[in-house]
Amino acid sequence: MLLDIRNLHASINGKDILKGFNLQVKAGEVHAIMGPNGSGKSTLAKVLAGDSHYEVTKGEVLFQGKNLLDLEPEDRALAGVFMAFQYPVEIPGVNNASFLRMAYNAKRKFQGKEEIDPLDFEELLKERLKVVDMPQDFLKRNVNHGFSGGEKKRNEILQMAVLDPTLAILDETDSGLDIDALREVAKGVNILKRPDNGIILITHYQRLLDYITPDHVHILVDGRIVRSGGKELALELEKKGYDEMGASTNGHRG
Amino acid sequence: MAIGADLKNRIYRESFSKELLKKKTPNADWLAEVRRTAYERFEKLGFPTRELEGWKYINLEPILGASFAASENNGLEFSDTRMIEKYFLSENEQRLVFVNGVYSKNLSSVKNLPPGVILRDLAASLVSHGDLIKRYFGRDASSETNSFSSINTFSFKDGLFLYIPDKVVVDSPINIILLGTGDNDSPSLFYSRILIVTGECSRVRVIVNYAGLPDARYFNNTAAEIHVGEGACLDYFQIERGSKNSYQIATNRFYLGKFSTLETLAFTEGGAITRNEEIIEFGGEKGFASLKGLSLLNDESQVYNHVEANHRVPNCTSRQFYKNVLAGKAKSEFNSLVRVSRGAQKSDSNQLSKTLLLSDTAESHSRPQLKIDTDDVSCVHGATVGQLEKDELFYLRSRGLSKEIARLVLTSGFAEEVIQDLEPAPLKSHLKDWIGEALEIATERKI
Fold first, then answer.
1. Nearest CA in chain A to B419
2. Chain A contacts of B404, Cβ < 8 Å?
3. Chain B touched by A247 (CB under 8 Å)
4. Does a structural domain hold residue A210?
């Protein structure tokens, strides 16, 4: 088992968002979590990444058998958890390539390896840039600073490609993308999909799933999964809408 | 403070009447008149008090109360190049070194200048080019508002003179090193005087290093007059890395001709008190001035950046971008006034100051001001003071960087934005290294 989330409750500013969330992810699987606005999708992503704005009030999260919630954000990242942000943060003054190298070296150090030679890293970056189909000058710019929405999302996927996580959580990576950008991002994710890692796609719309085929689809309403199924569930949802699918639960704020 | 001021007042007066009034400069008799004007102006102004807007936050007690003695003849034996090597930028630079305000020929190196360019110490230039200097020197002596500038005018003994004829481009950067060497037993007081005149469509880059020996105690009172010719480009970068016992007050006046371009930088790291006053006078249309500042302060260091941009004629542009990173009990002030005179249509100005506080005990004041007497202008101003953004920290940590490294990366990024497009490259890489070192200390202290 890669990830085992049991009865997770989380709140922000005293307001309960996740109310008994359960999920098991095995190596090689792609899970899609779909839900209306306010259902707790992004909260889940941020709690898993270790955002201190959120408080976990109950439940546990095991990542490869270890208690993930005990770890600092950086230790989660080093252990192999990666979250692609819904709203990637702009960091003026920090060069994209140097940032990637720092992050990459932090991981190497954690793994007991030596820092990578700058020239070797340049080669590696060139290779990984192809995943997101971005020009070289992407690296010379400051991290996300002045990037378009699509560029920011691609930059998240580039970071993912460089850091090569065991578990990737993509928080609404499809939102705000036009169809071409969506296709590019999906292509990147598909390249990075492997038998030994897991991917959680968090999305509001079904359209991302046209390009990335999930093994499991879960519908999240009001902090709980109300239905799980195969990829056909997403299509059913597309037809019926959240209201009908999650009709039996209270408090949804779609 | 009053006692200190009175005492100091007397010292200045005595030194003035005894020495300077009697002193004649060959080929520059006019200078005595300028000095007298400056002295009269100083008598009228007196030392600044905290009731004055421009001196509200600065405590001058350490300067006025301390026993700084004019010491321009001290330190002349200093010839240890190794101590100032860190201020050297490149092999091809023109280097002029002043020790406690006096030119040191041994430490300087001036070579291969284009024909017609004059680059030498002011004392010698007054003898050789008195008439030329007279045309530009002390233009605002009678209307000066900064007492320290007046004091400089009637007290200076030496300094720098740079003259560039029309259409001449000086490729090699001009690196001025103003070194202070006093110590606690005999703190030094000196005056640095800078006069730069650039001709039409000329181009030059000047770097002024305000430097001190480690732990040296000194007060460097600098005044510069900089005339930028029509269509000329001038870069004027001040690098202030004084010892923790150094006091530095600089008054810089920039006179900009039609279509001229000025770029300045005031980089301050360390020093007890640093005050920079930049006065921009647009004298012709389509002038452009970009002023940047970056201060990295720790412990009890203080920096005061005062800017006055006078848009007297139409179609001129001024940009101000000042950043501070404050740790410990450091203090910064950004006090900027953009004045748009009647008739100066299409004036375009921007005043922006951002301060990052790394400690709860640091203090920052920011006052961008506008006085506009005309319509049809674009004047923007803003100021922010804050701590590191939690969201930014989390973003970096979520990529595997430790809290400490994340803080350092964000702080360096904040600072380096100011010098991102800086040229020449050697200066930029020097500054980057210094920023790295300074912030490693500043952020670690907070962790």
1. A93
2. none
3. no
4. yes
Write out the DSSP string of B104-142. Answer: EEEEEE---PPTT-EEEEHHHHHHHSHHHHHTTTTTTTT
Q: Centre a 10 Å sphere on the Cβ of residue B298 and count the other Cβ atoms it contains.
A: 22
Q: Quote the domain boundaries for residue A234.
A: 26-51+72-245
Peptide bond into A165 cis (omega under 30): no
Can you give the CATH number for the domain in which A179 is found?
3.40.50.300
Kindly report the three-state secondary structure assignment for every residue of A128-185. HHHHHCCCHHHHCCECCCCCCHHHHHHHHHHHHHHHCCCEEEEECCCCCCCHHHHHHH
Which residue of A42, A74, A83 to mutate against B (max B Cβ within 10 Å)? Answer: A74
Q: Which residue has the tokens 């007279």?
A: B134
Q: Which two tokens stand for residue B94?
A: 């023109």
Distance CA B177, CA B175 (A): 6
Gap from A107 CA to chain B (nearest CA, Å): 7
Q: Classify B274 as helix, strand or coil.
A: strand
Number of domains chain A contains: 1
Q: Is residue A12 part of a domain?
A: no
CB of A145 within 8 A of CB of A172? no
Amino acid (1-letter code) at residue A37: N
Burial class (CB in 10 A: 0-12, 13-18, 19+), B428: middle
Q: What are phi and psi of A89, to 5 degrees?
A: -85, 140
For B81, the 3-state DSSP assignment is: helix
In order along its 447 residues, chain B shows pLDDT tens digits of 445 566 666 666 666 666 666 677 777 889 999 999 999 999 999 989 999 999 999 988 888 876 676 665 555 567 778 888 989 998 899 999 999 999 999 999 999 999 999 999 999 999 999 999 999 999 999 999 999 999 999 999 999 999 999 999 999 999 999 999 888 888 889 999 999 999 999 999 999 999 999 889 999 999 999 999 999 999 999 999 988 899 999 999 999 999 999 999 999 998 999 999 999 999 999 999 999 999 999 999 999 999 999 999 999 999 999 999 999 999 999 999 999 999 999 999 999 999 999 999 999 999 999 999 999 999 999 999 999 999 999 999 999 999 999 999 999 999 999 999 999 999 999 999 999 988 988 887 554
Cβ–Cβ gap B400/A93 under 8 Å: no
Query: CB under 8 Å to A124, separation ≥6 — which residues?
Result: A104, A116, A162
Buried b / exposed e along A82-98 (16+ C-beta atoms within 10 A): bbbbbebbbbbbbbbbb
Residues of chain B positioned with their CB less than 8 A from the CB of A102: 401, 405, 409
Beta carbons of B358 and B327 less than 8 angstroms apart:
yes
Is the CB of B421 inside 8 Å of chain A's CB atoms? no
Strands (E), A26-140: 30-34, 54-63, 66-67, 81-84
- CA–chain centroid gap for B301, Å, is 16
Decide if A94 and B400 are in contact by the 8 Å CB cutoff: no
